[in-house]
Amino acid sequence: MDSALRTETSSQSSSPRLEPVMDIKMDDTASVDSGFASGNSSRSGLPLVSFTHAHLKYLNKQLESMGPMDILRFCRLLFPNLYQTTAFGLTGLVTLDMLSKLQAEQPGSQPIDLIFLDTLYHFKETYDLVERVKARYNVKVHAFKPAEVDTVEQFEELYGEKLYEMSSDLYDWIAKVEPQQRSYETLKVAAVLTGRRRSQGGQRGDIPVIEIDEERGIVKINPLVNWTFREVKAYVDEHNVPYNALLDRGYKSVGDWHSTVPVGEGEDERAGRWKGQNKTECGIHNKRSKYNQFVQLPQSVSA
């Protein structure tokens, strides 16, 4: 049988729940379902997206030589329930600007909403940028905070002060990984556009344009995967894209204020993230197995 990769969500329960449905079969000869779930399907709450391994490989080979605008045009047609996940970094802002131009080409088409993980610890400049982006692009931003809290004070009352120092992985789970998963479930996400690029280094050096996140049950699309930081910045300047004021102070990749510093001359683009720590990712693009220990969280975590 063909190797089928499928993502869908269940509409059988009262609250939306994301179910990864990744049927991996070894025979490469039989056909698989294509297209979307029918209206009679018990899982018709979300259109079905499915690929064979061979088809996914073929798509990535074709997309590899295409520019970001053409990749975005293609993905807007191919993927239902498509969102853009962003922390309002430069690459995400370029993607957003390109999407706005595509929306102007087809004003009646479905707009791509944004998913923003509000950890409560972003820089003031980042929150200011969010408001400027909303005003400039008239885009809907779905912000997801850590569960059951709205402020830093509430967060620290529940989990203690400086959890990000006491247990970095636990902080990542509470502030980023769980809110991300909740966003997928709440919005019934089938696919997301990300701002990941190979030139950012680390674990991103060999990512494809389209990849399957089997553990989370979604498709990830990296439309600017081949661009360098210089190309991204040149687009921002040419098209007058709003960007984080911290960029002009030596920052290239901006996350939480407690784990982001300016980048030195000659350093990698993401060298300012978790400086001095043995990590390059916060968990939202990692395998979930690393965070299994945090699935059943205690009511509070002592500092």
- N-to-C series of helices and strands: EEEHHEHEHEHHHEEEH
Q: How is the largest sheet built, in terms of strand order?
A: 6-5-4-7-9-8
- Tell me the number of structural domains: 1
Largest sheet: 6 strands, mixed
Concise structural overview:
It is built from eight helices and nine strands.
Account of the protein in words:
This protein has 303 residues and is of the alpha/beta class. The chain has a single domain, classed as HUPs (Rossmann fold, 3-Layer(aba) Sandwich), CATH 3.40.50. The chain contains eight helices and nine strands. It has a six-stranded mixed β-sheet with strand order 6-5-4-7-9-8. Strands 2-1-3 form a three-stranded antiparallel β-sheet. Helix 3 links the parallel strand 4 and strand 5. Helix 2 crosses helix 3. It starts with a strand and ends in a 65-residue tail after the last helix. The N terminus and C terminus are likely disordered. It is an enzyme of class 1 (oxidoreductase). GO terms for molecular function: phosphoadenylyl-sulfate reductase (thioredoxin) activity. One of its GO terms (biological process) is sulfate assimilation, phosphoadenylyl sulfate reduction by phosphoadenylyl-sulfate reductase (thioredoxin). It catalyses: [thioredoxin]-disulfide + sulfite + adenosine 3',5'-bisphosphate + 2 H(+) = [thioredoxin]-dithiol + 3'-phosphoadenylyl sulfate. It holds the Pfam family PAPS_reduct.
